[in-house]
Amino acid sequence: MIIASAGDGAHARSVAAATLAQRLGELHEAGARWDDIALLFRASPSFPDFEQALEEAGVPFVTVAGGGFYDRPEIRDLLNLVRAIASPRDDLAMAGLLRSPAFGLSDAGLFRLRWPAAGGGPVGYQQALGGDLTALTQEDRECAGRARSVLEHVSALANRVAVAELLKDVLDRTLYLAVLRAAPGGERLYRNVEKLLQDAHDSGIVRVEDFLEYIETLKSVGAREGEAPSEAPGAVRLMTVHKAKGLEFPIVVLADASRQAPGEFGRVLLSPELGVVARPGRRTDEEPIAFRLARAVEREHEQAEERRLLYVGATRAQEKLIVVGYRGPRRGESWLSLLEQALEEAGARPSAGGPPEWLMLPASGALVAVREVHTSPPPAALPRTAGLRPPDESERRPLFRLVPDEEVEGTDDKPQPTEDGRGCRQNLFAVRAENDAKLIGRLVHVAILRWCFPGHVRLQPLLRASARNEGMLDELEAEQHVAQVVELLGRLRQDARWTELDGARRYHEVPYSLPQGTGTTSGRIDLLVQRSDSVWQIIDFKTSAIHGADDFETQSRSEFGPQLARYRHAVEQQLGAQVETWVCLLNYEGHLEWRRGP
User: Fold this and answer.
1) Residues 98 and 77: beta-carbon distance below 8 Å
2) Do residue 477 and residue 513 come from a single domain?
3) What is the DSSP string of 332-355?
C-alpha cells in the first residue's frame, strides 16, 4: 500500500503521517497487534512528525533509535531539575521545572512570580519562591510552595548523595511518575524516566555539575540514544533502516519515503579514482571536467546506496508493506519515486471491479493499494508593501568599519605550517608525529577547560568523544592518545600546586584583544587565577616535549616569552592589578616543570 499526499513538504508530511496513524488503527481493529508493526526511516530527523501523529491518534509506540532521548519532555523536566540545583540563578531551567507536571504552575503563575510588582523589574525565580506568594492564585500558591519545599530539600542533598538517588527522591516527593502514567502514552513516558534513572545509577556520579557535563558530552558527540525499549507487548516500533538490519516484522512501514539525499556537493570532493578534485569557481560553467566527473560518480554511489537501503527496508516485511510519502515541488529521486516508477514499468492498472485505489500487477496478479491524500493549498504569498524605495547610493552609510584582526597565538596544540624553508614537504612520519602531538595538546586543553582529571568518571568519555571530534576514528589509536593525555593530566593532578589551583577562583580560556598598529591582535589565555592576596596569575599549559634547559630557553625566546608578555599586557590593561605569568610544562623530560614567565 502506498499513502501519498500532495502539497508543500512540511504540511504534506504531517498529513501523510496522520493518515498512516489512521490506517494503523484500522489494521489493529482488524486483528493486527501493535508490536507486529515497525516504522522504518531513512534518517532519524523524520521521527518527530510521525511520533506526533501516533501520539494524537492514541497509537502506543516506542522510538528504538534516535538522537532525541535527552530532548524528550519528560527527560527535559528532570534535567531542568538538575540544572536548577546546580545553578539556582538559571531562570530558564527554573521556569521549565516549575511549569512541568512535577509542580504544574500555570503560565500566569510563572508571569506573576517573575514580575511580582506592577511597574517593577523582573525577579529571579529562586528569589521569588523564597518571597511573598500572595500575588498568585490559590492553586499556583500551593504549587509554588510545594516547589520551594522540594528544592530546599534536594539542594541540601546535592553533591552529597548520588544523582540517581537525588532524582529518585524528587520523583517520590512530586509523584511525577504517577502523573506521567496517567497521561496519554504514559507507559512509554514512565519507561523513559526509568531509563534515565538507570543511566544515572550506572554513571555513579555524585556532583550535579559532573552529571550535566556527562549528559552534554553524550549529546555533543551525537550519541544516538534510543528510548527505553518496550518490555511489554503492545507498542509500534520506530527505527532507522540501519537499526532494522537482520530483523523482520509482519507489517513494515517505510515512513517518509519522499526524503531525498542532499543534492548539493562541497567545493572539494575526494574521489577514489581521481583523488582530490576542487571547484575553484562558484558558477557551474567554471567547474573543471574532473570535478564534474567526480560529482557524477559520487551521485551514482549515493543513488546505489538509496536503492540498497530501500531493498533492505522493504524486505523486512513478512506480510504487508506500507509506503508513506508526499509529492512536493522537488523532483529528485526518493524511495517513493522509485516504487512508483517500478509500478509504472510493471504495467500496473486499475483492478477490474475493485475500488479505484487498487492497482493490479498483470505479471503476478498482486494487488497494490494506492491512497491519495489531498492537502489544503498553502496560503498565498503576502503582497509586497507598496510605497517603499531603496535608498539612494549617496544615502548609504557603512554600518561598521572592518578592523583587521591578526591571530598571533602560537601554541603546541595549534596547527603550524608543514613545509620547511625550501618549500619541500616534511617527512611523512615527522608530519604524523607533529599532528599526534597537536591532538594530544588539544585533548589536554579540553580536559583542563572542564577541570576534569584522572579520577573523574567523565574523563574517559570526554577524551574519547573529543578524539572522535578531531577525526581520530581508529579506536586503538584513540585509546593510545587518551592514555598519553591521562598521564599528562595525572602529573598536574599530583603536583604540589594542585590543591591551590583546585580551590582558587579560576577563569578558563579567557579571550583578549589588544590594539596593534592599525589593527588588533587577539587570542585566549589558558587559565587566569585570582589568588587570595589579590594577585592574578596567568598560567599557560604546554604539552610539547621539552628536552632540557637549552631547549626550553630556545622555545621561550621564540614563543613562550612573547606569548606570556602579550597575556600580561592584556590583563594589566583590563584589571590594573599585579600579574604573575607562569608556564606549566607538562612534558619536561618526562615530568612536570613550572617556569616563571616575563
Assistant:
1) no
2) no
3) ---HHHHHHHHHHHTT-EEPTTS-
Determine the structural domain holding residue 511 and report its residue range. Answer: 503-596
CA distance 29 to 130: 53
Domain count, the chain: 4
Q: What are phi and psi of 511, to 5 degrees?
A: -75, 150
Rounded to an integer, what distance in angstroms lies between the CA atom of residue 59 and that of residue 37? 11
Q: How sure is the predictor about 299, in pLDDT bands with cuts at 50, 70 and 90?
A: confident
Average pLDDT over the chain, rounded to an integer: 75
In a domain, 391, yes or no: no
Instruction: Express the helix, strand and coil content of the chain in percent, nearest 5 each.
Output: 45, 20, 35
Question: What is the value of pTM for the model shown?
Answer: 0.43
Q: Are 266 and 363 found together in one domain?
A: yes
The total number of residues shown for the chain amounts to 598
In angstroms, the CA 415 to CA 345 distance is: 56
pLDDT tens, 399-454?
444 445 454 444 444 434 344 444 444 444 455 667 778 889 889 998 998 888 99
CA–CA distances in Å: residue 60 to residues 188, 194, 254, 354: 8, 18, 18, 33
**Type of residue at 35:** D
CA atoms within 13 A on the CB side of 90: 14
Tell me the C-alpha distance between 373 and 157, whole Å: 56
